[in-house]
Amino acid sequence: MDIAEQGDIDGAVIFSVPGSFTQQQLAILLGLARQTKFSPVGLVNSALVESVHLAHKEYLIHADIQLHQAVVTLLASDETCFRVENIVQIPGVGTQNLMNLMMQVATDSFIRQCRFNPQHDANTEQDLYNEIQGWLSNYQEGKTVQLELKSRDTTYSSKLPWDNLTGVIDRYYQKITKQIDLLKPSVSCHLLLNERLTRLPGFMRFISSNKDFEVASGYQGIQACIDNRNLICSEDGGTILVDKLAKSKLGIKSLHTRPAAEHSEDASHLLFGNEAIKLSRVVILNRLGERECLESSQEINMAMKDLPEHLGIIDKNPNGIYLNSPNDHAILNDQSIRRGVHPLKLGDQIKFAETGDEIRLIKVRNGEQQ
């Protein structure tokens, strides 16, 4: 497939590349690109550009997953620049490795329940692969996986309990979170997860205990490349990998403190049911039990059926208020929104089902709701 033709691109292109790329791999990428209609004008570290809106933080960890490995990057910021400080590759825990493991677990399930091995035939092996791919794109956390395959005139069905599936892939997730913990400096460190990681079944169970994190949506890095193209593209026409950006030239609005007049219109609390919780960094959970608003631990428990355990975080910082949603279940002001980071304002209403309870952003002055 001709990507340039399919995307109707025949001009300048910026490549956002993982920090794991070697000089040889970068050279191959640029060499191939120059044989197309693309005109490569910039190379930038993907962790750096996806995290640029957080360049005001002293330290930051970015985590992403590739086909055959995961990559964890430590970024640091001082008075002059925002830069890549360290990169750790975790081989053997990529999306293809997880897929291979799930294929084996599903095959074992068919053998155990139906005495049928789908990997003995190329057609049923491909069908199983497609079944799992389809499930991954639309799974419901905690629910039993039901798989069905046809071979000649026979239909085989297998049920794979959620705990059985996640139990075997948890060790992969533990390798990733272990490296995140090892890479963290002793000071407070924010965590940015690429949404590819958050889509993996059961992964967020290893992250939700760490409140200081957010999810980077797919468009985030693309938009950052566009916004900062003058800093990424070389003036002399060369193509050099950018792994640091001068803070004085970033020119990103989110890095600057907003006027006091704008702050005065910010919400101060979240209203859930008949209770209000002060806004700082509030985790929205979905656990068995009662719907409740916990001021002490900065948590809201929705207690709803058929939804994942972790529903998101509402974060208030000097730059504004944001909902970091790890899935597609959130409904903002009666409109469904995709996973990612979404700005919020006073009066906004958030739900996770059409008939579910809402969370509303309010402002409290002298003990009175505004």
> Taking Cα atoms only, what radius of gyration do you get, to the nearest Å?
23 Å
Widest sheet, order of strands = 9-8-3-4-5-11
- Individual helix count: 11
> Which spans of ≥5 residues are poorly predicted at pLDDT below 50?
252-264
Q: How would you describe the oligomerization state of the chains in this entry?
A: single chain
Fraction of helical residues: 25-40%
Mean pLDDT: 84
What shape does the CA trace take? Answer: globular
Number of domains: 3
Strand content: 25-35%
Intertermini distance: 57 Å
Q: Output the structural class.
A: alpha+beta
Major beta-sheet overview: 6 strands, mixed
Tally of strands: 25
